[in-house]
Amino acid sequence: MAELDFVYNTGAAWTDLLGTVRYPYVEDPLERLDSPGRLAEWLAAVGLAPTVPPTDDDLLLARATREALRTLADGALGVPFRPDAPSAADAARTLGELGAGAPAFELTGNASLRPQSPSDTRAALARIVAAATTDLGHHPQDFGECSDPGCRKIYLDPSHVRKACCDTCSTRLRVRAYRERTKRA
């Protein structure tokens, strides 16, 4: 089912993590991270496959991390918080508990760096949190938010064009407009 497919078009792993729930601001959002296996699939796709497979507890941690990151991003972008979102203090506590994690790279014999697999899901999430806090702490102006009230997907927008909506919603709106034009013609 296409609705359950992960979307990797937001420009950063942490914004892609936010996209693992479709339409988070509607009454009945679609959860794409619905099992430890799906979490493992997503982590592998963003290059953070842990050496130990995710567990049910890891799935709960990933979802809590995602919602804490959403609160952090909403605050950095000046977006009103959702009534059911974690408070900024709770979000900071959740993200702080992940710690720094293991080093992301290792030095090889010929003095080059190679990515090192995270030891577990917690270490993978710690890398995602580190990237998000760096991005939002230093470059919040490089991110945009979809204007569709249900979507509100956060995406990388380094050109600062400030598109009206994310790529997914933009495509949907263009297709809808095309169909309307062809109906009238």
SSE arrangement:
Elements: H1 13-18, E1 21-22, E2 30-31, H2 36-45, H3 56-77, H4 88-97, E3 105-107, E4 113-115, H5 121-138, E5 143-145, E6 154-156, H6 167-184
Antiparallel strand pairs: 1-2, 3-4, 5-6
Helix pairs in contact: 3-4, 3-5
Question: What is the typical, i.e. mean, pLDDT?
Answer: 84
Helix amount: 40-55%
Task: Categorize the overall geometry.
Answer: globular
Beta-strand content estimate: 5-15%
Poorly predicted parts: none
Question: Which class do the helix and strand fractions yield?
Answer: mainly alpha
Give the oligomeric state.
Answer: single chain
N-to-C SSE string, H for helix and E for strand: HEEHHHEEHEEH
Descriptive notes:
By secondary structure, the chain is mainly alpha-helical. The chain contains six helices and six strands. A two-stranded antiparallel sheet has the order 1-2. The protein has a two-stranded antiparallel ribbon with strand order 3-4. A two-stranded antiparallel ribbon has the order 5-6. A hairpin with an 8-residue loop joins strand 5 and strand 6. Helix 3 packs across helix 4 and helix 3 (56-77) packs parallel to helix 5 (121-138). The two termini are 33 Å apart. The model has no long low-confidence stretch (mean pLDDT 84).
